[in-house]
Amino acid sequence: MYGAERQQLLAQRARRDGRIDVTDAAAEFEVAPETIRRDLAALERQGLLRRVYGGAIAIDRLDFEPEVSLRDQTNAEKKERIAKAALDQVPARGTVLLDGGTTTARLAGLLPADRELTVVTNSLPAANQLATRNGFNVHLLGGRVRGTTLATVESWALDVLRLLTVDVGFFGTNGFSAARGCTTPDPAESAVKSAMVAASRKRVLLADHSKYGDDQFSRFAELSEIDLIITDDGLDAAAVDELEATEAEVVLA
To answer: What is the pTM of this model?
Structure first.
């Protein structure tokens, strides 16, 4: 196959699936990963996609925010490992905050019954899992519910968060990088996330490796504000070094 033909197929794949993974594409086309990276660089110069960690995203999909059900299926096994690793950061008793997100919702379902916890969340899926369980005192933040993420946003949530101090906050993100911090497409959701960061004594980011380098529109935290990043072992050593240079601790689940 000629390089131009392969690049055309890669561009079509990016538009169809929203993302190209270098490793998967190299295996499919039976070429070296470096060849795919060169193809993606050529397509980026043509304005057809943007390269991110581990692959690329189609330009016409950059403002696309998948719904909860679709996001929950993406890297599901890695998200489960990350949520399990996050259990080590849950206190035996005290207050925790669960941000909206599919990985934080998985953590909600894994919280041990022997903990004495007050849980604050803006996530409807997380609140739904915890509300009927004994031993948990659950507070759902009010506000407008975003149908895309099933999380509450805007002034009702922000007004309450300004008055709170919680022991540990667990955060999801659409993208994160050493240069741009933690980002999300929606400014209203970003504002609530920022208020949650400010309300937490300890901040733990839960994000699978595919989100590294995928910087979104609105930043809600610098990585210097994050104490611990729990991601998966798909993140390479160079990326780990970049993250640790921000003084955040990194755990690979």
So the answer is: 0.77
Question: What does the pLDDT read at residue 45?
Answer: 85
In angstroms, the CA 50 to CA 48 distance is 7
Residue type, 152: T
Between CA 226 and CA 1 the distance in angstroms is 46
DSSP string over 149-210 = TTEEESHHHHHHHTT--EEEEEE--SEEETTTEEEES-HHHHHHHHHHHHHEEEEEEE--GG
Q: Residue 228: which of 212, 244, 214 has the closest Cα?
A: 244
- Summary mean pLDDT of the chain: 90
Is residue 146 within 8 A of residue 125, CB to CB? The reply is no
| Ordered domains of the chain (ranges, CATH) | 3-58 (1.10.10.10), 69-252 (3.40.50.1360)
